[in-house]
Amino acid sequence: MVLEKQQQHLVHKILPVPAPDASQLLIKVMACGICRTDLHIIDGDLTSPKLPLIPGHEIVGKVTGIGKHVTGYALNDIVGIPWVGHTCGKCKFCKAGKENLCDNALFTGYTIDGGFAEYTVADARFCFPLSLEQSKPGAAPLLCAGLIGYRSYRMINKDARNIGIYGFGAAAHILTQIAVAQGKSIYAFTREGDKASQAFALKMGACWAAGSDAVAPLKLDAAIIFAAAGELIPKALRDVDKAGEVICGGIHMSPIPSFSYDILWQERCVRSVANLTRDDGLSFFKTIDKIPVHTETEIFELRQANHAIEKLRSGRINGAAVLVMD
Question: N or C: lower Cβ tally within 10 Å for the chain?
Answer without folding.
Answer: C
